[in-house]
Sequence to fold (318 residues):
Amino acid sequence: MTAVGEPGGACAACGVTLNGRYCHACGQDTEARPRPLREMALEAFSETSLIDGQGVRTLVALVTRPSRILIAYREGAGSLYASPIKIFVVVTALFLAVLNFSDVVIYQYVRHVEPGVQVTARADPDGYTVHVTGESDAELWMQRRVEPAIDPRIHEAIRRAADGAANEQDRQNLLYEIQSDHEQAIISERLAAWLPNAIWLLTPLFALLLAPLYGRRRLFMEHLVFALWAHVTAFTLLMLLALANRFGANLPAWPLAIPYLFYFTRAAARYYGMSMVAAAWRAVAHMAMYLVLVLIPAAIIVAISALDLQALLIFLAA
Fold:
């Protein structure tokens, strides 16, 4: 009688007759179990990391020939590289880890006062604007966390002005200025907390916007693979920026659009079979569409979720 796992035996997973250690039908490794702990640990590491021969080839290709992985995957030679979904998952996890290590925040609203400067506040007659003297404010993207983001002296000055307000409208206007700052802090926290889930939702939308520009007749999965790669590129650039800012570079985020569009264009030209010029204007158009149709609406949803409706109604009623 032939034992399971030996040539001529049956695969324990699918029942097909074996010709060797590995089942030719399902790929099952029929070697006897349990395996040594060291072997299991190495397998777990290789499944959750890019640090192996396949991973090195993947990283080199991502840097030097961004379209090679995409074309190999589409043409059935994807085993040479890590799968697009694995690259996407690992790089997303690395991006979040780098943000934690570097203490870089995706977005934060900062109001600052120089030492020794007197801060005063007053409500504008328009009923919506609050003027604070002695402060400077800024919206920071991918910069190190500023603590406190809002100088306490600003809110102290606003509260003093609210206590001495001449009418209820001015008082509510001043108080709602403080509420707005609290909501900005919530938006910053939610952007960081929701990012992992949001990316899984936004990536298919990214792929959908590729279709009218790079080929409606192509399979959606072709566009989705490209979308995964594009997000890997964006996260890699953002990681480099976060590390640079961690060590005091204080670089803005917007210049990253230049290398991103360069890599996007190179990859799209090869992957979709078009000239660099045709791929370039489509890359710019896609970025604009993604910003207007996806990212800005997503940001509005986050802002609405942070809104204190009761405080807003009190402010409007005044």
About this structure: Residues 1-5 have pLDDT under 50 and may be disordered. The longest strand covers residues 104-113. DSSP finds ten helices and four strands in the chain.
